[in-house]
Amino acid sequence: MKASQKPKFSRILLKLSGESLGDSNGMGISPEAVRHMAKQVCEVRNLHVQVVVVVGGGNIFRGVQGSEGGIERATGDYMGMLATVINALALQDALEKLGCPTRVMSAIAMAQVAEPFIRRRAVRHLEKGRVVIFGGGTGNPYFSTDTAAALRANEMGAEVILKATKVDGIYDSDPKKNPNAKRFNEISYLDALQRQLKVMDSTAFSLCMDNKMPIIVFDFSKPHNLRSVVLGGKIGTLVS
Predict the structure, then answer these.
(1) How far apart are CA 67 and CA 72, in angstroms?
(2) How many angstroms separate the CA atoms of 78 and 140, rounded?
(3) What is the mean pLDDT of the chain?
């Protein structure tokens, strides 16, 4: 590894949305999309960076949408948490096929498919070079997987949350609707909150702000972008 190739971070938390594992409409599980993700994660792990992944479940089920359709909110949220475990297993399978040792840990006990989340055990897996994927959100209804990412990043002592999206950072308005939307290279937590920029939901965002956990929002659809971020490349938007 060249001197210039030294990673900027030694332990990261990667937040993936459920939709990013889906097809072009963000639904179901696309083997191609999952393989693309796994390749990028493996690339970073091979730089001897410890990787924690929190994955969403929106490609399969969203608790909020379920409750709008008449399902009780807490029940809908538990269904969404189960969806995140399905996604975690899909990602684990793709990573293991690339020779990347992995552990899935779930906030909801399901001993046959995943280990229960125990912080010290998770840290030990990281120290042994395993990628740790957290499923089941926080294990509680009414909390999003963004909040789970913020919580786990702080618990695991990650240096940064890398939020994978389909856009190349945070804009002052929707770049798909407004061609003149301005992209931020850096923005403060307070500024992002006041402008009501949808970086994460307010609970997750407050947790990051209170604990000074930096967030980098970047485009995960481009090959090698995760590696570039970890190596300190000027990619995406830094919230700090």
Answers:
(1) 5
(2) 8
(3) 92
Per residue in 12-57, pLDDT (tens digit) is 999 999 999 999 888 999 999 999 999 999 999 999 999 999 999 9
| One-letter amino acid for residue 110 of the chain | M
Q: Which residue has the tokens 């798909």?
A: 176
Domain count of the fold of the chain: 1
What residues contact residue 208 under an 8 Å CB cut-off, 6+ apart? 150, 153, 161, 189, 200, 214, 215, 239
Considering only CA atoms, give the Rg of the chain.
17
The CATH number of the domain holding residue 137 is: 3.40.1160.10
Residue with tokens 């190349």: 168
pTM here?
0.93
pLDDT tens digits, one per residue of 85-95: 999 999 999 99
Containing structural domain, residue 205: 3-239
- Are the C-beta atoms of residues 152 and 54 closer than 8 Å to each other? yes
